[in-house]
Every structure is written in C-alpha cells, then in structure tokens.
Amino acid sequence: MGGGGQQTDRITGTNGRFGTYTWEEVQKHTKFGDQWIVVERKVYNVSQWVKRHPGGLRIIGHYAGEDATEAFTAFHPDLQLVRKYMKPLLIGELEASEPSQDCQKNAALVEDFRALREHLEAEGCFKTQPLFFILHLGHILLLEAIALMLVWCFGTGWINTAIVAVLMATAQSQAGWLQHDFGHLSVCKTSRWNHLVHKFVIGHLKGASAGWWNHRHFQHHAKPNVFKKDPDVNMLNAFVVGKVQPVEYGVKKIKHLPYNHQHKYFFFIGPPLLIPVYFQFQIFHNMILHGLWVDLAWCISYYVRYFLCYTQFYGVFWAVILFNFVRFMESHWFVWVTQMNWLSMQLVATCNIEQSPFNDWFSGHLNFQIEHHLFPTMPRHNYWRAAPHARALCDKYGVKYQEKTLYGAFADIIRSLEKSGELWLDAYLNK
Predict the structure, then answer these.
(1) Using one digit for the tens of pLDDT, what is the confidence trace for 346-357?
(2) What is the average pLDDT value for the chain, to the nearest integer?
(3) Under a CB-based contact definition with an 8 Å cutoff, are residues 347 and 242 in contact?
(4) Residue 110 falls within a domain, yes or no?
(5) Mind listing the pLDDT tens digit for each residue in 53-96?
(6) Residue 72 sits in which domain range?
C-alpha cells in the first residue's frame, strides 16, 4: 500500500459480484500468491500487489487473513492518497453481522486507541518542528567536520585518532537515529520528500541502503518480536530468545551453540559484529540482489567521501582500520539501544526507558518504545506528549506499561538471555 496501484479489473466475489465476506472466508487466504486483508471493513486482494508494495512484500503478507486497519493508519501519513491506489484491489467488504476486528483483537480497546490517535492528531502531536531536525542534522555534520579538522591540525597519533574515532562513531549513531525519522515519514510533509532525504541520510551519511532498511524495519513494526515475522529477532541460530523458541530448540535437540552460555558470548558476537560484519554484508547483498542501484550510488558516495578525506592522512590500510573501528563502536551503541526491549518478548509488551535529555539524545528518542510503536509516524520530539495518554489507555485495559532506567534496561538484556538459555538447557536435557 502506498505508491502506484495495480491497474487490473476488479475481482468479483464468490457469487460473481462485488462480494461480502465472513472472517472465516477471509482467513482462508493467507498463503503467498493468495492473500487477502481487511482495512476499515473493506476486503482487499493483495496477492499480486505485495510484489510492488514500497514497504516490501512481507509486511502485507504478515497481515494476510487479518484486520490491518491499525497498521494501515500507522504507516501511511496520507491516507486519502493511499486509499485511491487501493481501489483496484478492492473485492468486497465484511458482512454486516461480522465484527470490524478479527477475533484476536479487543474491539473496545481498538476503538479507544483510534479515539486516542484522533485526539493526539487534534493536539498537533503529528506535526513536525523543522528546527529540531535541522539542528540534529547540523550537529551530525559538525561532529564529522571536527573529526576531520582534528586529523588535519593534530595528526594521526594514537590519542588523537581515538578521539576522532569517538566523534565519528557518535556522528554515525546519531545519523542512524535521523535516518530512522525520515524512514518513518515523520519529518517532511510529503512521503516523497521523506523518501528522498532518507536516501541521502542513510546513503551518503552512513553508507547503507534505504530499501534494505525499509524491508527490515517495517516488518519489525508490523509484527514486533514475532518469530519468523520480525527480522530484528532473527538471531541466525546464534541466540534463542523469549520463552517459546528456547523450548522448541531444546525439544528438537538443536544446539548450534551452547545457548545456556549465550548471556556470556553475547558480548563477543553480538554488539561487536552486528554492523561491521552482518549488516555490512547484508546491505550490499540486498542492493545487488534486488537491483537497488540508486541506493548503491548513494552508498558508494559515502565511501568515496570517507576515503578521499582520510587516506591522505592514514593511507589506505589504516583508513580501513579506522573505518572498521568506528563501525565496531557504532555497533555497540546500536545493539544496546535497539535491544533494550528484548525482555519484553517474555512479557508480551515493550518497555520505555525513563526520560532525560541524555537518554533522549543517546537513544534517538527510542527510549519511548511504547509510543514509537503505537504511533510510528509521529515526530519523535512529541513522544513525551503522547506518553501520559498511552499510559492511561494501558492502565484502563490492564496492559503493562513499563518504564526502566537505562542501566536497568541494559541489564535486562543479559538477564533475558540467561533465562532463555536456562529454558533451552532444561528442554534439551529433560524433554
């Protein structure tokens, strides 16, 4: 959804006309090549459109046979435009006797959440403050400039190089949070401008791919912490997380690594390797495999800029070493921030980190995990305004709303891994 629609004849219902359907009928269409979704009580056949969806084919597939209204509203700022492109996919609507939500959802909670969103929109919480993002971009460029000037003025000694590396890693991490804002279409007024600037920030400032990021991250938001649907919890058999996966692996006697020690080896293969090794390979593989040539051009521009600036001081070999050391530090920053809600997979919820100017800056406002997942297109500088309302809604329906210290959240990552490892070992030995 969003982008050019598929121009085909309208598909008729089972009686040869514009159809009405029960949830039972809708839920039969969940397999690749035969996928239906429901948005605002209307039934859409997205079987072919998934291949052209700007957010990637998997995100719609994750909602096959389900009500996708909340996801539709959350991901698309210009709903009227997207509805226009969806018309060729419309095949009918739910029967009048059918509930608006599938059986997995609390109808009263859904209605209250929609009312909350309308209230926040009326309060201006979805309006961007351009100065916030201009200053954020400015401080990233300033950090990059200071790093280069330090090398220019003070040379390539070990102490100066260490300071330069810290500045560059900080700039890279903060650019990561900024590209996240543009990727969520939460900065510019139109999706087009958000997409264009997103390519510049993630491509030229970070050397990564907007298409690759969209494919991964929108799946994460569609089904956060759902195994086989959220790529952020795809641990490539290096870790087992949550309560279900460890037991499944244990019962099946799967032992790619000694998972009962994963809370120890996490420090050696998690934060140090994610960006320098796994993401680096995956980004280029994805761009070439899917023909993302515009992304590749932006990405190459980053590497050209970096090596033109630093090989004249360090030479090629040491410039490569500096580059990878910066990625190594950035990877630690990224992993600890983004995995702060690992424990939440055991609680069927997520958690916030207490607000402070440092926590907001350090995490790119992802310390407001709850509000970010409820309202992914909301500019992050407004999360604090939405937080009291989200907490009140959670209290009303008995949904756990957690808030932790930054240290407590980091510690819970290790506790979560240790607990999951114990579950795996027990199942592996005894079941």
Answers:
(1) 334 568 899 999
(2) 87
(3) no
(4) no
(5) 766 666 777 788 888 887 777 777 777 777 887 888 899 988 88
(6) 19-105
Pairing status of strand 30-31 against strand 34-39:
antiparallel
- The answer to whether 55 touches 46, Cβ cutoff 8 Å, is no
Against a cut of 0.90, is the pTM above it?
Answer: no
* 387 token code pair: 């937080």
Whole-angstrom distance, CA of residue 293 vs CA of residue 394: 44
Which domain-ending residue is among 90, 105, 120? 105
Q: Is the same domain home to 274 and 420?
A: yes
Number of domains in the chain: 2
The CATH number for 36's domain is 3.10.120.10
Per-residue tokens: 230: 């959220």
Among residues 208, 167, 197, the alpha carbon closest in space to that of 310 is found at 167
- Report residue 104 as tokens: 């997995």
Q: Within this chain, do residues 168 and 253 fall inside the same structural domain, yes or no?
A: yes
| CA neighbor of 329 nearest in space, from 168, 205, 149 | 168
- Cα–Cα distances (Å) from 366 to 256, 338, 376, in that order, read 32, 8, 11
- Residues 6+ away with beta carbon under 8 Å from 165: 322, 325, 326, 329
Predicted confidence band of residue 274 (pLDDT cuts 50, 70, 90): very high
Distance in angstroms (rounded) separating the CA atoms of residues 421 and 260: 4
Q: Are residues 206 and 75 in the same domain?
A: no
Which of the listed residues 88, 105, 122 is the one where a domain comes to its end? 105
In 10 A of CB 431, how many CB atoms?
A: 10
